[in-house]
Design goal:
By secondary structure, the chain is an alpha+beta fold. The longest helix has 19 residues, at 2-20. It folds into two domains: 2-73, no CATH class; 80-160, Immunoglobulins (Immunoglobulin-like, Sandwich), CATH 2.60.40.10. The strands form three sheets. Strands 1-2-3-4 form a four-stranded mixed β-sheet. The termini are far apart. It is built from two helices and eleven strands. The chain is elongated and about 65 Å long.
Length: 161
């Protein structure tokens, strides 16, 4: 009965992943005992990529349909994001180039630039990004520039001025 309930929960999670996430065919199982490994084995045989999160060691194992396991530390570090130029509190006018740098210890997923809390530009991946800001479209005075980034593990970070 316990195995049946656990399989049902894992199947529901798998179904949600398939329908609403870009990582289709992925199942995550949390646990460190034989039940978690049995559930992972069942989904692996069905062709899913299976992640096993060991709740004791906080490590993540990947099990593919060839039944090989590899262990790696779960990504808990947020991405680094920086507004390189112009400098904070600069006076700008006309066409201004904003330079943004985003990096991560594993992989950056999305970087979003906001000007006065309105999304101005969105990029994918890590790197140096440029945004050409046409300031005559904005009133004279101070404006808030914020850059937000997330990595593929869901960690987030932002910087602003």
């Amino acid at each position: 009965m316990l195995l049946s309930a656990a399989l049902s929960q894992a199947a529901m999670y798998s179904s949600a992943v398939q329908s609403g996430n870009r990582y289709r065919g992925v199942v995550t199982v949390e646990g460190n005992g034989p039940l978690a490994k049995s559930i992972a084995d069942i989904f692996s045989r069905m062709g899913y990529k299976v992640y096993i999160i060991d709740t004791d060691t906080k490590t993540e194992q990947t099990q593919n349909n060839k039944h090989k396991l590899r262990t790696r530390q779960a990504d808990t570090a947020p991405p680094d994001v920086e507004i390189v130029s112009p400098a904070n509190e600069s006076y700008v006018s006309g066409n201004v180039t904003l330079t943004i740098l985003a990096s991560d210890n594993v992989s950056v997923d999305t970087v979003i630039l906001y000007i006065d809390e309105t999304e101005a530009k969105r990029w994918t991946g890590a790197g140096t990004f440029k945004y050409y800001w046409y300031t005559p479209n904005y009133t004279d005075g101070s404006h808030n520039v914020t850059v937000w980034a997330n990595d593929t593990a869901g960690n987030t970070n932002s910087t602003y001025y």
